[in-house]
Amino acid sequence: MTTSTTGTDTLTRDALAVLQPGFAGTTAPDWVRRRLGEGLASVALFGRNVATAEQVTALTAQLRAERDDLLVAIDEESGDVTRLEVRTGSSFPGNHALGAVDDTALTRGVARELGRRLAECGVNFNWAPSADVNADPDNPVIGVRSFGRDTGLVARHTAAWVEGLQSTGVAACTKHFPGHGDTSVDSHHAVPHIDLDATTLHERELQPFRAAIEAGTRAVMSAHIKVPVLDPDRPATLSRRILTGLLRGELGYQGLIVTDGMEMRAVSGTYGLEHGVVLAIAAGADAICVGGGLCDEDTVQGLTDALVAAVRSGELPEERLADAAARVRALADWTATTRLSPAPGGDRDPEIGLAAARRAVTVTRTGPTAPVTGPVYVATFHPAANIAVGDETPWGVGAELERLLPGTTTGSFTGTDAGARALEAAAGRRVVAVVRDEHRHPWMRTALDTLLAAGPDTVVVEMGVPQSAPRGALHIATHGAARVCGTAAAETVVAG
Fold it and tell me: Which end of the chain is more exposed for a tag (fewer CB within 10 A), N or C?
């Protein structure tokens, strides 16, 4: 083991240990390697750090040359939120598609195959799955990241996903505690309020987390949401009542508690980044997710200094920081012990993602229509991506339909005149209209109105939450926008 900490005092090592920072580039910066020698126990990978699986493998090996029990974290939900396949789209459907199939063995198998791929790249800690019950269909940040609206369904698939992932030695991190599903505000931008009564909270929001804890989830991620029935003053990430009282005390959870990204405006815009980090550790968080935006050494130094200063001033008890650091190291020990274990059985299934996406497709025919046998025009109506999903990852059915139906052309549209512009671009050809959460975007509904009025034979592909009533000659719901969901949808268009 090569974790030299000579010249670094215990307090500073503990402060470094609770940070899970990101960095820029596809190789390990000198400052990260140096900090690993001083006590940093985790790093986080984001899309900017990923080029290929082989490159990620080389990167994690480079990092572990400095500290062999390192936690390498990633936000790899599969589906719409992918980092490992950020430039191509995910080989696995996301939660909503798996929930639509409702086969826990399939969910377990998908998570297991994903875990194997992460483990092969040297990633041993995954900030997933989302256990949020998508109670508000207008939720701007969860949506297809949730298994669905039914509490029991979400609970059983959360448990299956955790079990599948952790069977490969990759730690799961169930999120966003105590439940981000019933919000109409994105916590990347502001503090959402969830005004639930205690009964609804316990019977709906908390049940998937109870299931994850029973399944042995190694980590839980807090949400930057305010739940007045639990704590009228502070969001969950900064609330001792929620993290220590509810999660640790009432639910009996003893694993690692990780914060959601601390640069998110729900915390940093209200409390300041450094003060927010101190408050989170004091409330009961053990690890600080930071680096989605701020990914430099000065950020790590500033947060380390803030934690040390808080202990020395008495604001943060030294034993609380030491306990948090010990929990981080305990998880690192678990991954170091299990990452060398062989994958269970010989049941690798590299095609399970596409098979799952095909099973998730729902087809509605509104009346007799001619099959699609020749080239079409694919009009993709593109909403603004939320920060969790990002705008780097391609989605849709255009590329696959171009392959299946040579001569097919594509266009992307947004805004109030999107339908008219798409109709003009189609120039009389049959249209395949691709939408994402039609119910949340009035301009998108108007665009479909325009296309369907002009061409009743238009095919509609919904790649978000299929909340709106199906329409179009053929309506195809994929329950997510992963690459494999696009493939499954294109196959369905051609098959009719």
Answer: N
